[in-house]
Amino acid sequence: MCGISGIFNLSSRQPIDTQLLQRINREQSHRGPDDEGYFIDGFVGLGHRRLSIIDLGTGQQPMFNEDGSVCVVFNGEIYNFSELVIELTELGHRFATLSDTEVIVHAWEQWGVQCLERFRGMFAFALWDSNQKQLFLARDRIGKKPLYYTVTRHGQLVFGSELKVLLAHPDVNRTLRTELAEEFFMYGYVPDPHSAYKDVSKLPAGHYLLLTPDSALKPTAYWDFTSPAVTLPWETVQIELIERLTEAVRIRLLADVPLGAFLSGGVDSSAITALMAGIQDSPVNTCAIGFQERDYDETEYADQIAARYHTNHTRQIVSSNDFALIDTLSHVYDEPFADSSALPTYQVCQLARQSVKVALSGDGGDEIFAGYRRQRMHLAEQRLRDKIPAGLRKPLFGQLAQFYPKADWAPKPLRAKTTLQSLAMDAVEAYANTMSKLRQGERAKLFSASYQRQLAGYSGLEIMKTHAKAAPTDDPLKLIQYLDMKTWLPGDILTKVDRASMANSLEVRAPLLDHVFMEWAFSISSADNIRGTEGKYAFKKALEPYVDHNILYRPKMGFSIPLADWFRGPLRRELSSNLLSENMLDSGFFCADTLKTMLAEHTSGRSNHADALWSLLMFAKFINRQ
Asked: CATH number of 2-221: 3.40.50.2020, 3.60.20.10, 3.20.20.120, 3.60.10.10?
């Protein structure tokens, strides 16, 4: 796991500045504290920071082919590199290292851009072919590894693994995108392919750029989910699921450094730990963090799995009032990021790094096997939408939603405002409404009149609609799973884990997000993923021999922190000073009266705006750094 960076002359004829390349690359030293390397060849300069995982002795980057005409800097892992080495050697290529990185240059020589179809792993890389004068940038299919890029006013392409790399270049435009606040307060993150900045983009998952001097920037897709040819029978799923997941786990255990697993006590991390224990001869290294407050603590379940599989288990109990990392998170994520579980995620990465350099995680299980409550609720709503004509449904439920109070204080069954809103919408609008941090009406109240005029009717919903048009299925559940995999998964889950882990120089591997496994799992019947009120049904049934029943079928908890109490107590003053800072009020995005009203209602206890206020605090931290 590493960090990459580079400068490429698209229309500029100025020489590559070696010192500048080194300076921007060192902004991400945390991603690779073990080594650094550089390559400059007329049009292009490539930089690399190394976290040594495989081939510790000869795996330094940049890495070249036999005659030095092809050069690559790479962030990630190619898990099937051993098989590719055999195939490429038989085709006449000669390997000088034992590193998976070297496979990329020879695969490029042999297959060109089609080499991406051969790679099984997580990656972002930049490859320079001096013979063809081509720069090849690519990102893995699911979006586990990030890649940002921009073009300066002088015609130089600047790219890197994190935004801070680009922002260290003096010619990069730091103007914020007009749509930033609308998209962020809808999604809770800045969705691909956008960034917080007008001229900076993220290369979307499953895309590449192939560039020559004077060429246009046109990201090209090389992979997507396809419509399942057949629906897998129940018996096939139960026979093959563990076998296929075990194989995805096995190929992720190769490392020349200590390796372990996150063990939260949930279904997915317990499954990964159980399968690792069945593969390894030595005990699995596991780690978990817990909270002093029982409502936020799952360590008893992690302890249960650790005891069953005799793992080397490390547990650390922290206070749920430990909010000292908030400013750190703002720096780690570079742009607004509102998932509050980033804080405990950072803490568990800190803990893991004390004993291992690589950790396997259970990320992806809820997306692949439909484990979120929102997915079950959406299906129930969709059944009702299908029964009532839109001409009747939209005005009826629209009016009810308008008058129904936002009852944050009430038991969940009585918090019906979002459900009523969703019933008035079509399927895509409804799911976007469910996923929104702040609903459309809430954003309208939050934003200033001048900002709403700038938006000119634009809504972040357009991103969801664009993905929905490309969806390979009209199955109601698979459609929203596809939307999750295009938005929530890369934008929130994978961003959260990548930045938190790499800030601690820790590599995280996610077997459930193996693309071969995911393609197979996409063929599981929706009726087998959700049975009644039970999500992840097929997955849980397959896991029954491996994970205790009380863990498989207990309510999902997740990483939670007591935001509402924080904002009424120890963080009250900091929240107010940030939200009502001069930079926030002068940004033009917000209605000052709404900000003041939200603060007053929450701190007095009249309403619970905790999630919205956390989003605003993260946005304020970002704005106040500009």
From this structure: 3.60.20.10
pLDDT in the model for residue 394: 75
Q: Which two tokens stand for residue 269?
A: 């991390």
What is the band of 14 on the pLDDT scale with cuts at 50, 70, 90?
Answer: confident
User: Which of 440, 419, 427, 417 has the alpha carbon at shortest distance from 390?
Assistant: 427
Concatenate the DSSP letters of all residues of 371-404 into one string.
Answer: --HHHHHHHHHHHHHHHS-HHHHHHHHHHHHHHS
Residue 518 has pLDDT above 80, yes or no: yes
Q: Residue 172, class by beta-carbon neighbours within 10 Å (0-12 exposed, 13-18 middle, 19+ buried)? A: buried
Give me the sign of the Cα torsion angle 594, 599, 600, 602: positive
| Residue type at position 454 | Q
The residues assigned a catalytic role are 2
3-state class of 561 per DSSP?
coil
- Closest of 149, 140, 105 to residue 120, by C-alpha: 140
* Number of other residues whose CB lies within 10 A of the CB of residue 438: 22
- At 415 the pLDDT is 53
Euclidean distance between CA atoms 338 and 574, whole angstroms: 17
Domains of the chain, residue spans: 2-221, 225-561
Q: Does residue 391 carry a pLDDT above 90?
A: no
The position carrying tokens 């200590």 is: 258
Residue of 96, 72, 100 lying closest to 4 (CA atoms): 72
How many CA atoms does the CB half-sphere of 441 hold within 13 Å?
10
Find the angle CA(235)-CA(239)-CA(240) to the nearest 5 degrees: 115
SS3 583: helix
Tokens 């963080």 found at: 571
At 317-342, the pLDDT tens digits run 877 677 788 999 999 999 999 999 99
| DSSP 8-state code for residue 28 | G
What residues contact 98, with CB distance under 8 A and at least 6 apart? 54, 55, 58, 59
CA dihedral 346, 350, 352, 354 (to 10 degrees): 170
How far is 162 from 25, CA to CA, in rounded Å? 10
CATH number of 225-561: 3.40.50.620
pLDDT averaged over every residue in the chain: 93
Query: By percentage, how much of the chain surpasses pLDDT 70?
Result: 96
**What's the pLDDT score for residue 410?**
46
Distance CA 613, CA 618 (A): 9
Residue 515 and residue 86: Cα distance in Å, rounded? 22
Write out pLDDT tens, residues 345-364.
Answer: 999 999 999 999 999 999 99
DSSP state of 493: I
pTM: 0.95
Q: SS3 letters for 395-450?
A: HHHHHHHHHCCCCCCCCHHHCCHHHHHHHCCCHHHHHHHHHCCCCHHHHHHHECHH
**Residue 184 confidence (pLDDT):** 98
